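Troubleshooting log. The previous run stalled partway through. Resubmitting the same two chains, unchanged.
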Amino acid sequence: MPGCLALQKPEIAMADPSASLSSTLVRSTYVAPKRRSRFLTSDRIIAFLLIAPSLLAIAIFVYGFIAFTGFASFTKWNSLIPDFTLVGISNFQKLLDTTRFQIDLRNTVTFTILFLILCLSLGLILAVLLDQRIRGEAIFRNIFLFPLAVSYIVTGVVWRWLLNPGSAELGATGVNLLFDKIGLGFLKNGWYTDPNIGIKAVVLAATWQMSGYVMAMYLAGLRGISDDLREAARVDGANEFQVYRHIILPLLQPITLGAVIILGHMSLKIFDLVVSMTGSGPGFSSDVPAFYMFDTTFRGNNFAQGAGIAVILLVMVAVLIVPYLIYSTRTEAET
Amino acid sequence: MFRNTRWLILLSLAVIVLVALAACAAPTAAPAPTTAPAAPTTAPAAAGGGKLEMFSWWTAGGEAEGLAGMYAAYKKLYPNVEIVNATVAGGAGTNAKAVMTTRLFGGDPPDSFQVHAGLEVATYQPDKYLQPLDSIFTSEGWDKVFPKDLLTLLSYQGHYWSVPVNIHRANVLWYSKKVFTDNKLDPPKTFDDFFKVADALKAKGIVPFVLGDKEGWESAHVFETVLVGTLGADGYRGLWTGKTAWTDPKVTDALNTYKKMLTYVNTDHAALTWDGAGQYLIDGKGGMEIMGDWENGWFQSKNYSDYGWAPAPGNSGIFDALSDSFAMPKGVKNADNAANWIKLAGSKAGQEAFNPKKGSICARTDCDQSLFNPYLQSAAKDWQSNALVPSVVHGAAAIESWATKYKDVMALFVTSGDVAKTQSDLQAACKDAGVCK
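Second attempt completed without errors. Output:
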């Protein structure tokens, strides 16, 4: 899908010089435009030829493989040896009947919703606070942004240690120990080892990592809103809260949309953080479809089932991304 | 300007042709090796020269040392052969297996490779890609030195495809001697004993039964021993061949027993792996753990010696085994060297070089026991006399897709405790594997 956008741009870019080029060549090729179709100018051919290699590569390595995965999900390929006997949608039926996959889907929804809410609200609050022209803003900005530079694997391992509950027998560890020491012992809990918390513990780590990024997006948005608008609102008698409620937030809407898309598709595909932090968790309470896909494909050799999960994941991400792509190409065309 | 654009067209055409060539070249390049190795098999490999490429996932610790010991033994016999140690680390062999199939089906097999003894060999389509080793088994007299049950396990479609080098035992109950003597307890033989001991320990504030099931398979591993203990050797074996039904009331019993056992576990079991759980025994805060005999090596690496072992409850007289073996692909580059390697792997010298370091016992029954530590000696004694059953969690009893489903179902059981649902899920997994109707 990103390919589509990338492909359109060079064409547009090439169209501009062709206009100026043909105007300089009007005299020499005066009759040519009528004979040739307007489509096949030499510049367009060049443009096409130049993008052809990447077009070919994307066609094979992205769309070709997507198509192959889709095909594989309808076969009964369930060992290391490919078996392309078609079995219709039975892989999907079985998958949706599997308890583990049902839990996975629930976990994904929980994760996505909590992750979005926490990241967006935290990011917005941080951005608004930083936007108050405080001293040492650059330092704070960097501090909040740094987690983004850490890989998910590292985040996962560190948070696994932090949220390791310890045990009744051997004593508390990590955050629980901290709670103990500062007299907040009642806050102690099993974190990711508690089946009722499970994936929510992962949300904490993911939020820690990504909220700084949302903050940066919002901060850029806030800086793009001219002071005139705020001043005008204040002159009209709006208090500070109303300025944000009626002026700033509506103007930040495109940023919010962008953040939802970016965070949303990340949370649907989340894998490395879960693997390094919790694994499947007790009773699969922190399991996600991507991890199940890996498990069943590469440990269980259920290639057809793994392909089925991949297809479902693709559909879920497409549901989120495609409307955004349509929306953004439309607004692009308008401007 | 116009000339320039012509050049550009030419240039981009050239690029496209190049890409197209590269794309076309790939498929033609792949089949080439499939036919190529066929020739070297017929060509006589230089006696005592050439190479031997051995493929495994043994990259670290005792197993890598054991393999090196076996290489040394091989070098002594065939000093001119260069050994290529091809390894793919990680994932308890899952990564290696994926690479191995690619090489095998792509026509570039190593001379010999590691495979779990048992049904795992089926994944490699032996009739098409592997060399049957029946003649070596007869000429080396292996049908006499390996236990009969192991030979049955090794045989697939009427042939032997791999030679077993080591044996690990999965159904061992490890216990802290200190905890048991302090409380005047004996290691339990039956499930009733187990619960009596567990109650006594619980009353003293000691974790009776430690478990670390962070990775999911550990739970399935313990349940495997409960199945063996409840159904007996024949009944358990039948589960994987279709002779025993998963709907059998004895499976229900096993699930109920396991459910009761889970009420005695440490609270942080979901955060620990099996070795982390073993720390409870070392600290004297836990009583028993059911795990494979790699626990023995782990205790030793921690300088902990005050532990005892017994068969898991109900498992006496039964040896739940997993075994690594070496197979030989068809059409290998150095056929003679590979055959010599296979012979060494099954020989007394080869197994004695490998096993003490790996922390496993010989698949042969005639190894020199003085080379082994006390646990391994006792395991070797059981190995000669016990009934043998294959471990499912460790790839000996069922195809991988079934084994992972079984593992998933049991991982879920730890939190759900739903006996009826779990039993029907186990039955469904058996059906999916095509073994149950």
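Takeaways: Chain A has two domains: 2-58, 91-334. The CA atoms of residues 69 and 307 of chain A lie 5 Å apart.
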